[in-house]
Amino acid sequence: PVTVGVLALQGDVREHVAALEESGARAVPVRRARELAAVDGIVVPGGESTTMDKLLRAFELFEPLQEAVRSGLPAYGSCAGMILLADRIAGGIEGQRTIGGLDITVRRNAFGRQVDSFETDLVVEGVPDSVDRPVHAVFIRAPWVEEVGPGTQVLARVPSGEAAGRIVAVRERDVVATSFHPEITGDLRLHRLFVQIVSDRG
Ligand code: GLN
Q1: Which of 15, 16, 172, 183 is catalytic?
Q2: How many domains, the chain?
Q3: What is the CATH number of the domain that holds 122?
Q4: pLDDT digits (tens, 9 = 90+) for 153-180
């Protein structure tokens, strides 16, 4: 099987490790540059992007991770992970940096305070039969994608309500990101999609 790392500085690491293992990958936590060098793909979990940014620098992992993603290491980010994989950020804190990899502008905490957390069903491009069996998406102080570059594929939009039409899942080459948290719902289809991307590359 392929080996997929989960960035393990902060956030919901265990949930991603479990979902990846159930999706047929070998999943390993990554805290050091040498651990990063040993994986075929990397997951950046949900959590708090500002904290992860600081920890990435403290662990001297910021540049190695940026370099790895730039060189084509497949990456999947959920929620805070989406923010970290975005080339541009709106609503970040002073001095907040991102790893980048996706030619998108992401808006942090985009859905507003009154809807800190919400759930909805989504059709996600590339997820088998999500038209008949939608992906149940859980959003927790989530970002949305405000702008996508010409090479970025939109995988999902919010179907209805105040945020209708907002982009919440994207892919560019082998980099995927979702505003929501499939790792906590038991639906493995997004993790399987990512494991497939990693396998196809090897
Ligand atoms: N609001 C968080 C951030 O800015 C993301 C929340 C999450 O990952 N659940 O990083």
Answers
A1: 183
A2: 1
A3: 3.40.50.880
A4: 999 999 998 899 999 999 999 999 999 9
Closest atom of ligand 1 to CA, residue 79: 8
Q: Is 3 exposed, middle or buried (0-12, 13-18, 19+ CB in 10 A)?
A: middle
How far does residue 99's CA lie from ligand 1's centre (Å)?
A: 15
pTM over 0.90: yes
Q: State the average pLDDT over residues 112-122.
A: 81
Note down the domain range covering 28: 3-201
